[in-house]
Specification:
118 residues, 61% helix, mainly alpha, globular, Helicase, Ruva Protein, domain 3
């Protein structure tokens, strides 16, 4: 299991971001909504994200250097990729799956205030 996690950790955020955008837009959600979710989760802003995308920052550094993980992440629960996000033991993989779960909720049409756990 460790090696497949390692592969995911070393993937660049920039390589996955267009898939997040496509998933959202395919379901009539916007890139702006997606970015709002990413900023809410990580504490990054638009300028920082542009730099992360340009530098092809990997997921390990993306989350490792995040200004502040939202204090409400513990409210993100449910199943993503067959795993309950609240039970994922590896802290980095859990953060990646939190992001996947939020993108999923966006694509499923959940209202933003629910996605952002307000």
């Amino acid at each position: 299991m460790k090696s497949s996690n390692e592969r995911v950790f070393k993937m660049s955020f920039a390589s996955v971001y267009p898939h997040y955008v496509a998933k959202a837009e395919k379901k009539n959600r916007t890139k702006a909504e997606l970015d709002q979710i990413i900023f809410w989760l990580t504490g990054y802003d638009e300028a920082a994200q542009k730099s992360i995308l340009a530098d092809k920052t990997n997921f390990e550094d993306f989350f490792g250097n995040a200004p502040q993980l939202n204090p409400n992440v513990s409210k993100i629960t449910g199943v993503i990729c067959g795993c309950r996000v609240e039970e994922i033991e590896d802290p980095l993989m859990q953060k990646i799956r939190y992001l996947d779960k939020l993108v999923d909720e966006l694509a499923k049409g959940k209202p933003m205030e629910k996605i952002l756990r307000n």
